[in-house]
Structure formats: structure tokens, C-alpha cells
Amino acid sequence: MRSGEDRAAFPGRLAGAVQIIFAALLGGVSALAGGDSPEFPPRGVVLFAVYALPGIVGLLGVAGRRPALLLAAAAATTVGSVVAFSGVTLIFLVPAILFLYGAIRLASVARTAASRSAFGILAGSILAAALMVLMIGAGASALLVTDEQCWTTYLTPGGVRYEPAPYTTGEMQVPTGALSFSCSTGVISARGVGLAGLLGAGALALAIATGRRPRDVDELRPREP
Fold first, then answer.
1. Total Cβ atoms within 10 A of residue 100
2. By CB atoms within 10 Å of each CB, which of 85, 136, 137, 143 scores lowest?
3. Cα–Cα distance between 135 and 55 in angstroms, integer?
4. pLDDT tens profile 71-107
5. Phi and psi (nearest 5°) for 211?
6. What are the b/e assignments for 58-86, b being 16+ CB within 10 Å?
7. Between 93-108 and 3-32, two packed helices, what is the crossing angle to 10 degrees?
């Protein structure tokens, strides 16, 4: 690998690493501040998976020298950075900018004729759009397709135990011996996580299938005997 390509690939590598680290931080904070909720899988795990996905796609783009994958990661990360009213997800603007810069750098050192042709640019744009839709769809499915649920919390010698209860919007009473009785309309749902898993797997499969490194123009020229 040439030193110029190494330098061009560095912003994308850094973006992928920062994205995954920030995803772990967000998931960890959510897990620690989870509160009284029986969600399965835990919200912290779901947040980590959702926000780490663009980082993985971006790293695949760097490995395969595919700027389109970094553009898709930049777009998905930008959308993910503005979903929290508290502003905690704004930190993801940092890797989003790095992804965009990395895509520009990789495109500037593209050495294949196909990658510089009008068809190559169009194909890259379609690929980036498809990946962006899959990743944003995965995040939206996991976090927005939720259930209405009530549960009773008991404190036992073995730890906290949750018992599901019918959802209600009326007056709630804490059962005898219970620690609390809670209801929510935003509980992580199995169908939302399942759909997110399918969309995320599709994004990864597409990124892997199209992320193979293009052959160098020099490699296609016949060698002299």
C-alpha cells in the first residue's frame, strides 16, 4: 500500500474508531441510568448496536477504499446525532465530519478508471443512498417501534424482579409487597429490534459485498516478460 493511500485512509479509520467508542459510551451511560424498566434486550445494548453500525460500515469502506461507504456512514451518523432532545448525541457530529472528510480524501486518490467515471460516481451514489436508508431504518425500527407495557417491580433477596401487567392509563396502585408499579409507551419491543436486526444485517451484507478493494490500474496492465 502506498503512503499516500495510508494518509488518505487515516481520517476514515479514525472516524470508525471514534464512532464505535462513542457508541459504547452512550450505551454504557444508558445502561447505568436505565432505571426501573424490564426492557429486553436492554436499551443500552440496543443503542450501542445502532450507533456502532455506521462505524463498522465506515471501516469496511476504508478497508475496501470505497468512499461511498464512508458517505453513507457520515449521513447515518449525522441523522443519529440529532435524535436526542437532551443533546447528548451531538457528539456523533465529530465522527460524521471525519467520515465525510475521509470519503473526500479516499475519492481524491482513487486510482481506478471505473471509480472516476460517470457510471462509477452514479453507482457510488446509489450505494451510499441504499446503505444510508438501511442504517437509518435499523435505528428507527429499534428505537421507535416500541410497546406499551406496565410492570410491577419487586425487591427480592436475589435482586430486582419484574412482573408484567396489563397496560393501563387509569389509576395505578402499587400491589402489596411491591417496590413500584410503572407503565410506559416507549418500551423496546421484540418486533422493533427484530426488524432493526434484519435491516442492519442487510446493510452489513451490502457493505461487505461492495467493499472489496478495486484492483489497481497497474495490476490490470500486462506485465513485460
1. 21
2. 85
3. 11
4. 999 999 999 999 888 889 999 999 999 999 999 998 8
5. -95, 10
6. bbbbbbbbbbbbbbbbbbbbbbbbeeeee
7. 160
The pLDDT tens digits for 128-183 are: 999 999 999 999 999 999 888 888 888 778 777 777 777 777 777 777 777 777 78
Q: How far, in Å, CA of 215 to CA of 62, rounded?
A: 15
Q: Are 77 and 19 in contact (CB under 8 A)?
A: yes
pTM above 0.85, yes or no: no
| Closest among 11, 133, 131 to 62, alpha carbons compared | 11
Provide the β-strand partners of residue 144: none
Query: Measured between alpha carbons, how far is 19 from 100 in angstroms, rounded to an integer?
Result: 13
Rounded Cα distance, 54 and 153, in Å: 36
